[in-house]
Input
Amino acid sequence: MAKDTREKILNAAAQLIHRQGYNRTGLQEILATAGVPKGSFYFYFKSKEDLALALVNRFIEFWLGQAEELLSDPTRPALSRLRDFYAIRRAHFLETGFAVGCPVGNLSQEMGDLSPVLGERLDQVIDTMAGRLAQVLAEAQDRGELALHHDPQALAYFIVSSWQGALIRMKVCKCPEPLDIFLEMVFGRLLAA
Amino acid sequence: MAKDTREKILNAAAQLIHRQGYNRTGLQEILATAGVPKGSFYFYFKSKEDLALALVNRFIEFWLGQAEELLSDPTRPALSRLRDFYAIRRAHFLETGFAVGCPVGNLSQEMGDLSPVLGERLDQVIDTMAGRLAQVLAEAQDRGELALHHDPQALAYFIVSSWQGALIRMKVCKCPEPLDIFLEMVFGRLLAA
Output
């Protein structure tokens, strides 16, 4: 029951904050959507910032789960797994109208200068994402799929950031072009060189 | 005098919106900072959205002016000019504490799903930026500095988006690393291939 209430708040917050941003979304709107009285909120979270931290933690767990599922199969070439990881995201945005983008990128952009607590956690989460991708890139090097002159860690950071940048343009062009350009430049050019 | 009032509003809005976001910034805060009464506002702008459009237009004029200054000198290699264009931006963010980022990227991220009017204009502005960079890349091909297999337009979009993505991480790591990785990956790898 207690866990249900916390989940209800998190689900409403995820839906609202990912769609319309942290600053536009009030605690009152989140609680009304969740159907939870304000008094209960502070039993689960210290503040709206604390709730956003919980959202970030939930998102990176989801992301790592999907990475585990899609990036770990040793029977397939490592770079094919990585390309599929992004191709699946591309398909998701095609289905959902090129909206929302990356919750981690959105919150970083919106709150990086405004909340040191959120900024620090988002920085760690980007490190985690890049670290996971770097593992696949290093594996690609071990398997002879990727030239050894590449630095997997730097490349992984670049891929994470370039994807977040592509999602920014996607949100205004409402078209797949930035995602297609990302796939071509990263997989057709950068990793092929 | 009238022009002064409009400028005062634009300057206050630029400062506040670029630093803390569109949704966090109220019209009242902008007018208090500008020292302009609310009645005067509607003489110059129809709405906060209309004001944001004027900010976007002012920013792209500034950007194109800087591009003209830094990208047009035919006595220097085209790719060196382009690299300097971004190295100067890197230096700016080092001096200003890795804050704010790209106003066009920020507004696109924050408003792309929420304001069709702003989204459409931001999409045009990104096209304009990419178009100007594509000119330099095509010039680099004409001068034999860039391999002919590259598509200048796609490359230009990728550069614009990857820079905006690098600025997102910069805002949370508060460090130059994402900008350095961008410069190395774009100029040391992608354009060198």
Summary: The longest helix of chain B spans residues 116-142. The radius of gyration of chain B is 18 Å. Chain B has nine helices and no strands. The CA atoms of residues 86 and 183 of chain B lie 8 Å apart.
